[in-house]
C-alpha cells in the first residue's frame, strides 16, 4: 500500500516517508516481540509485564501505517476522479447514481476493508480477548484478498475509465453465436 500511495502521488517521497518510517519501526518492534516470546518459551518462564504493551505498540504502529496510506490513497483517488463532487455538480452526480459507484470504488481501492480488519484485531488484542485468535486468521485473509483485489482493479485502468457495467444480453448472445465476428 505504501508503494501504491507513492506511485499515485507522483513518486513524491514526502507522501511515503511517514508510512515507511512507521512500517520499519513496526517491523523492528514485531521482531523484538517474537525474540522475547522465543526466549521466554525456551526458558519456560512467565512473559514480562511489558510484553503486552510492546506487542500492542507493534500492532498500533502497523495500524497507523494502514490509516495514513488509506487516507492518502482515498484523498488522491478522489482528487484524480473527474466525476467526484469536488469537480462537478454533486446533484447531477447523485441523480445518475455515479457518485455511489465512485464512493464504493474509492472505498475498495484505498484499502478501507484492510483498515477495518486491522482495527478489529488490534482492539481484540489490546483487550486480551479470547476472540483474538479467532479473528486474526480472517483478518489476515481479508488483508491478502483485498491486496489482490486492489492489484486486479489497478490492472483495469484508471478509476474513471473502468467499465463496470454488464453487457446487455443481446450483445453477449450475438458474440457467442458468432453473428458479429468477421468471415474467415
Automatic annotation (TrEMBL):
Keyword Membrane among UniProt keywords: yes
Transmembrane segments: 51-75, 102-125, 131-152
Keyword Transmembrane in record: yes
Keywords: Membrane, Transmembrane, Transmembrane helix
Protein name, as recorded: Uncharacterized protein
Organism: Hypholoma sublateritium (strain FD-334 SS-4)
Lineage, broadest ranks: Eukaryota, Fungi, Dikarya, Basidiomycota, Agaricomycotina
Amino acid at each position: 500500500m505504501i508503494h501504491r500511495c507513492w506511485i499515485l502521488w507522483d513518486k513524491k517521497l514526502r507522501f511515503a516517508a511517514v508510512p515507511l518510517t512507521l512500517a520499519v519501526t513496526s517491523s523492528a518492534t514485531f521482531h523484538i516481540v517474537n525474540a522475547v516470546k522465543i526466549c521466554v518459551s525456551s526458558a519456560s518462564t512467565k512473559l514480562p509485564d511489558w510484553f503486552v504493551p510492546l506487542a500492542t505498540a507493534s500492532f498500533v504502529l502497523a495500524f497507523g501505517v494502514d490509516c495514513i496510506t488509506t487516507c492518502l490513497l482515498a484523498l488522491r483517488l478522489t482528487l484524480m476522479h473527474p466525476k467526484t463532487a469536488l469537480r462537478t455538480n454533486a446533484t447531477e452526480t447523485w441523480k445518475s447514481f455515479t457518485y455511489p459507484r465512485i464512493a464504493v470504488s474509492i472505498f475498495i481501492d484505498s484499502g478501507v476493508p484492510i483498515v477495518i480488519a486491522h482495527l478489529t484485531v488490534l482492539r481484540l488484542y489490546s483487550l486480551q480477548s479470547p476472540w483474538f485468535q479467532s479473528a486474526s486468521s480472517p483478518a489476515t485473509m481479508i488483508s491478502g484478498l483485498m491486496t489482490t483485489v486492489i492489484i486486479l482493479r489497478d490492472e483495469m485502468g484508471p478509476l474513471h475509465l473502468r467499465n463496470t457495467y454488464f453487457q446487455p444480453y443481446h450483445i453477449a448472445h450475438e458474440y457467442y453465436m458468432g453473428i458479429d465476428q468477421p468471415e474467415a
